[in-house]
Amino acid sequence: MSGTETAVTGMGLVTPAGIGVEENWRTVCAGRSRAAADPELAHTPARISCRVPGFDADALLGARKALRLDPAARFALVAAREAVAHAGLDPATWNGARVGVVIGSADGGPGTVEAQHRVLLEEGPHRVSPLLLPMQLPNMLAGQISIDQRANGPSMVVATACASGGSAIAIACDLLALDRCDVVIAGGSDAMLTPLLMSGFAQMGALSQRHGEPAAASRPFDAERDGFVGGEGAGVLILERAADARARGATVHGRVLGHGSTADAHHITTPDPGGHGIEAAVRAALADAGLSPGDIGHVNAHGTSTPLNDRVEGEMLGRVLTGDPLITSTKGVTGHLLGAAGAVEAVYTLLALARRTVPPTANLTVPEPGLKHLNIPVVATEHTAHTALSNSFGFGGQNAVLALATA
Questions:
Q1: Taking Cα atoms as reference points, which of 222, 183, 266 lies closest to residue 366?
Q2: Which one, 39, 51, 199, 311, has least CB within 10 Å?
Q3: Residues known to be catalytic
Q4: C-beta of residue 113 within 8 angstroms of C-beta of residue 136
Q5: Is the CA virtual torsion 129, 130, 131, 133 positive or negative?
Q6: What's the pLDDT tens digit per position in 268-278?
Q7: Does this chain's domain 6-247 share its CATH topology with 254-405?
Q8: Has residue 2 got a pLDDT over 70?
Q9: pTM for the structure as a whole
Q10: Domain 6-247 - what CATH class?
Q11: Computed from CA positions of residues 82, 105, 102, 353, in that sequence, does the dihedral angle turn out positive or negative?
């Protein structure tokens, strides 16, 4: 990355695994799936999901503010506040002109759109909320964080489907390398567990139909996987140039050594069966980081629990990486957080490196026959790795891979 070392000085999480980094870490290491029957989806072909537990927006943000925010923005603000506090930074005293915000999201605020569309049909156009657009526009995820945190630098939302969170972190690193910012609030947020969107995923055949045993439905790399389980949430990281972080005496929780972004240019939803695009993204991230395929000790895989994705990704990892890394998919616990997944999983990857423990892949009982050679732990496993990859792949064949390291 142009010789610029990027430090991660703060992290914040709101996911089905809990609210806050520590609760998340305990849950993913325990391998407890958060999937359950979802009353809001009971009349749809989706029926199950992974929702954020116990999220009291009024208590966390204030009732007046929460009322004016789509759930995706609520998640993003809470995660951003945790990350900024974790970094030991104070928006009241920093130079906001040098603070940027880059947030990934697959769809912005679809829940608001669906709710207001019902108002339009049932009560008429004059009852539609004047806050419809400020609540649902994707750019407002970054806009709300910028306002809340007094960040006057570049502010943008990145949409690369399920790679969005990873793409946002990559762009944030480039902003630091180009000296456009001194601090970037980067991550991803999505709240897509709506009847319309989840019905769309179900009609595509993307979702698990294991409705009778939801806790076993998300099973990455398992021979009996049949689709993903939708999730929601946000992950936010505070990124700074390492020299700046050291100069202010900040605690560095990990580093972003490099990143790779590619496109399959193959199909609107199906990954290239040869894995050429995702392999190119992995190799680009390694090259950017100055690493070899044998240097990687851990991979947080995209691992969606869909039949084709897991096979293609697993085959690619076995073909490219030579150091027998510990591979996990935390989606066995959280479900698929869509545009937030890459950012949340980057935090999990950094925690795995810092705490010398790789979380398990929940529900993996019988590995995919062609992937039995991969080292995929089913319990939390100690390790000594210093470098790792976090993979994120999206519809449209858009891929983002982050090369991460210990502090």
A1: 222
A2: 39
A3: 162, 302, 336
A4: yes
A5: positive
A6: 999 999 999 99
A7: yes
A8: no
A9: 0.98
A10: alpha beta
A11: positive
